[in-house]
Design goal:
The protein has about 60 residues and is of the alpha+beta class. It is about 20% helix and about 20% strand. It contains 2 helices and 3 strands; from the N terminus they run ββαβα. The protein has a 3-stranded antiparallel beta sheet. The protein is globular, with a radius of gyration of 12 Å.
């Protein structure tokens, strides 16, 4: 069940934090420009990112 639009794996992902320290995983190709924080994401970019705490059940690894 591979999504051809999201192929690439871990090495094609960017990790972004919000002001509270929560982490989000985004595919680099889905982002426009050099983004460092979640607040800098557009609504469209935010929709394509995943909240890491939802993936693994905790905010901290």
């Amino acid at each position: 069940m591979s999504d051809p639009e999201r192929s690439g794996g871990y090495e094609s992902m960017v990790w972004i934090r919000d002001k509270d320290g929560k982490e989000y995983a985004c595919y680099a190709k889905d982002l426009k420009g050099n983004i460092k924080t979640k607040d800098e994401l557009s609504e469209e970019e935010r929709a394509k990112c995943m909240d890491v705490s939802q993936l693994i059940g905790t905010e901290r690894w």
